[in-house]
Write a structure and sequence with these properties.
CATH topology of the largest domain: Rossmann fold
CATH architecture of the largest domain: 3-Layer(aba) Sandwich
Low-confidence stretches: 99-109, 350-355
Number of domains: 2
Shape: elongated
Helix content: 40-55%
Distance between the termini: 65 Å
Number of strands: 20
Strand content: 15-25%
CATH class of the largest domain: Alpha Beta
Radius of gyration: 29 Å
Length: about 525
Amino acid sequence: MACSDKELKINELIEKSTIIEQRNPARYRLKLIKHDLDPSEPYRKMTFGERDLKKPNKTILMVGETGTGKTTLINTMVNYMLGVQREDKVWFEITDDQSKQKSVHSQTSIVTVYEFYLQQSPTDLTIIDTPGYGETRGVELDKRIAISLHSLSKSAEGIHEIHAVCLVIKATQNQLSERQQYVFDAVLSLFGRDIAENIVLLFTHSNGAPPQNALKAVKDAKIKCAVNDKKKQVYFLFDNCQSEDFEEEYEKMQEKSWNLSHSGMMGFFKFLENMKSKTLQMTQEVLQKRKQLEANVSNLQLRVQVKEQKQNELKQTQDALEKNRKYVEGKKNFEYEAEVSYMEKIPVNQKYGHLTKEAMCCTVCQENCHYPGCWWVRKLSWCSMMKKGHCTVCTNKCHYSKHVKEAKIYVAKTKKEKRTYEDLKKEYDGKIGDGVSLVKKLEEELQELEKEKKKLLNEAYYSVETLEMIALNTDSLLTLLHIDFLIEKMKEINEPEKAKKLEDIKKRAGEDNTGGLKYVKRLQQK
C-alpha cells in the first residue's frame, strides 16, 4: 500500500530526528545544527533547515517564569509550523535541557536562539528563548541574560529586530507571584518605549475559558502589552497537553486540549503576520545606559564612602589640634589617634560574592570600574565602560591599559593609627601658603571633599533621569536597587528636589511592583 504525502512528510521528519520516547505520540528531537560560536559569546544558536532570504522571517522573544510551560509552547509552535496533527501520533521537539550540558560554552550560554527554516512554510521563524529567568540563582544570572541580549543585538549575524515579545503565564493564576513580577520587570526594563505594542500574552494550562483573573493580575501589575480595537489586552490560549501520552478514556478531553492549542497557535501566527518589527536600536541604548548606571553607582558608592572616611579622618585631626592647642601654639610635638582610610583588594567570592566572578578595576585610581556585570569580554578595550580606549567610570578616566580584570575588587576600609603633630606638618609641608594655618588647610580640604561628593552624586542622579526618559519600563527594579542610597545622599547634600523626585520614582515603582521589589531584596539578603 502506497504511503500518502502526509506519511512521507512525517517519515522524512523522523529521519531528521532522534527518538526521545517511543509511545503515543512518539516524541522526537529534531536534529539541529549547533553553530560554532566564539566561546566568549554569551548566547548560543541552533538551526533547523536552510534560510531562504527571499522569504520573510519573524523573530519572537519568549519570556516566562520557570514552570509556566514556556518550553512546551516553543515546541507547540514548531509542530504547528510542521503541520503535525493529533492523528499523526508524533511530537517533535527542538528544545533541550541546558542544565545537563557539560561544555563550558553551554554553561555560560544563557540565551538560546532557535532558527526554524521550513521549505513549505511561507514564513521563517526565529525564537529567542530566555531559560532560567527568575530562578533562585539570583539577580546576577538575570543580568547575564540582559548582557546576552545586548551582545546578540550588536553582533553582525545577530538579532536586530523583534516582531513579538511573548509573556508566558499560567491561565489559572489569580495574581502574579513576586518572582514573576520581577521576571517581567527585568525583561521589559531592557526595551525602549516603542516595543510596547509588540508585547503579547500567551496563557498556558487553559481550559478554553477567558482567563479573567489572570488578565486582571497582569493589569494590576501594570504590565504593558498590545491591545485590540476595543482596548483589551491581546492574548492567546493554550493547553500544554499535546505531548502527553494519549489515553482512550480521556480521548475527548485530550482532543479538546489539542484543538484549543491549535486554535491559539493559529491566532498567534495571524497576529504575528500583521506585526511590524521593532529595531533594537533603542533597546541597545537602554541596555548600555543600564550597565553604565549600575557600574557608575557601584563605583560612586565606593568613592563616596572613601570621601566620607577621609572627611572623618580630617575631622578627628581637627579635634586633636583643638584639644592640643597649647602644644600647637608652643610649636611642640604631641601624639594623637585617628581612623585612617585605605583601599584593600579582596576576592570577589568572599563577603561580596556574586555569580559575576570578575571585575574590571583601575590600578591607578584604585576603583572598581565595572562591577558587577563584567564577565564575558576578553579584551579590556571591548568593555562597555570603555570609550575611545579610556574608562568612563574611574576618577581619572584612565586608559584601559591601566586596568586589570580579575576575581578581586577594591573595598574601602579604615584602621586606627597613631600620628604625631610633626608627621602632620611634614604631610602638609608645601601645601600651606603664607598666612594659611594648618587648621585652615584642613577645613579647605573638607570643603573640597564635600564638593567632589556632590559632583559624584549628581552624576548618578542624571543617569537615573536619562534612563527614565528612554526606557519602556521607567521604574525598573534594577534602578530601585540603588535608589535608597541616592535619596539618603541627596538629602545630606541639601538637594531636596532631587531627593523628592527619586522618592516619587521609588513610591510609584513600589506601588506598581511591590512583589518584584520584595523578591529582589530577598535575593540580595541571601
